[in-house]
Amino acid sequence: MLFLSREDVAFLVSMEETIEAVEEAFLKHASGKTRYPPKTQFTLPTEGWRWWGFMPVYVEGMGIACKIVCDYPENRKQGRPTIIATIVLCDSETGEVKAIMDGTYLTALRTGALGAIGARYLSREDAKTVGIIGCGVQARTQLQGLTKVREIEEVRVYDVNGEAANRFILDMRGLGLPIKSVDVKKVMESDIIVAATVSKKPVIFGKDVKPGTHVTSIGAHTPDAREVDNALIYKAKIVIDSPDAKSSGDLEGYEGEITEIKDVIAGKNIRTSPEDVTFFKSVGTALQDVAIASLVYEKAKKAGIGKELH
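-> structure tokens emitted (310 positions)
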């Protein structure tokens, strides 16, 4: 059994490889080559919002994985990660545990990869500007992913904490893109808008979103959290990463048409006009986890990286 640390996994995989692996997992899901139980999730009955999720899955050719993940927003006050995860990868032939690996970095990476896949299929091909609300870890990998699927020319960011926006700009300067800290109204003028917040109230309003925009929401993944308002929901063509997304606060009570991203990847056409507004709601799936865990494991074995546990 191989143990892989955060440093190990960060060294092993690129965003491009992750996008390819995650897309393959969803395509296999669309073809019926998976076993995908619902996510088990709950919040602790303690002061503060402490969410836990247990996410098992089987994908043909990739194996069996289960991720244990928690979301502790208060950790940011102590300089700790708010999302902490561990992935267990098993051999589907023997049932043995093949690897245990740090999933915190991989969760951010695979989330950025799925956001990029959503934009590849749902945003206009000529989309050139990106607006981001919330400048935490998830925002970083979302932008990295978007640069792999669209020719981005300008990035506009907003965070209620101005210092967080400034740190984001410094951290992402290696992309070679003009990144500006702006007000929310300016973010709304972007071709692609990403919400990566812990907000309980909408931060994106349908009245402000221009025709042709693609919106991604990846922060609000529980019933009490919201990133977009009803006006946006009823204005947009909606795509989700999994049925779990229907339980998010953003889609609570919505009974209109919803498409899963696996069907879009498999060929279902969603954007039929340059004027369409599209909305991709992602709450995270185990499909992403087994895809990246399998990729990391194979590369680690070839490179001789990690610690063998007996």
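The chain has two domains: 2-107+286-308, 112-281.
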